[in-house]
């Protein structure tokens, strides 16, 4: 009796294995891309909550709150944009005794690597400020105090100055996020711009 024993795999068996491996690989790539999308939208949502919290805090406390941009460099934090920096953070400031003062609560919002923020707002110089600062700011030791000037200010009556849009973008993500203040609802509105 002569029995033919098969050696190796048939073409159909190889094709089935290749299809299974290709399907699993495609699903893995899709899952990784969706994870990156969720990461960026999660950061955009956190910024939205942080800005909304400042607006609500301004109304509840009856004080103007502002947002300043700070850049982390090798020398420390600076308020003027340097040529090279390691990170960007947004710091809350409050208008107190005729000047803007940095606050510790809420904590500064640190943007992730590869993200940028643009202030598409009307430019306001120091002479046109709605909330003017004292001319000579000196602390008790007689040293000059750095004059803080926020990019935007949340006013206690439910408005924001200057009006405009804040745009959050990421280097490795095509979409960007915009934030605008809705005067009717006194709330920050977030939009996703698909590019």
Question: What labels describe this entry?
Answer:
single chain; 195 residues; alpha+beta; seven-stranded antiparallel β-sheet; four-stranded antiparallel β-sheet; 1 helix; 11 strands; 33% strand; elongated
Per DSSP, what share of the residues sits in E-state strands of 2 or more residues?
25-35%
Uncertain stretches: 140-144
Largest sheet: 7 strands, antiparallel
Give the radius of gyration.
26 Å
- The beta-strand count equals 11
Structural class: alpha+beta
The dominant shape is elongated
Mean pLDDT: 80
Q: Tell me roughly what share of residues is in helical segments.
A: 25-40%
Distance between the termini: 71 Å
Number of helices: 1
**What is the H/E order?**
HEEEEEEEEEEE
Can you describe what's shown?
With 195 residues, the chain is an alpha+beta fold. The protein has a domain at 11-62 and 114-193. Helices cover 26% and strands 33% of the residues. It is built from 1 helix and 11 strands; from the N terminus they run H-E-E-E-E-E-E-E-E-E-E-E. The chain has one helix at 11-61; strands at residues 65-73, 76-78, 87-96, 99-102, 109-110, 115-121, 152-154, 160-161, 164-170, 173-182, 187-193. The strands form 2 sheets. Strands 1, 2, 3, 4, 5, 7 and 8 form a 7-stranded antiparallel β-sheet that branches. Strand 1 (65-73) and strand 2 (76-78) form a beta hairpin.
Task: Present the secondary structure layout.
Blueprint: H1 11-61, E1 65-73, E2 76-78, E3 87-96, E4 99-102, E5 109-110, E6 115-121, E7 152-154, E8 160-161, E9 164-170, E10 173-182, E11 187-193
Antiparallel strand pairs: 1-2, 1-3, 1-7, 3-4, 3-5, 6-9, 7-8, 9-10, 10-11
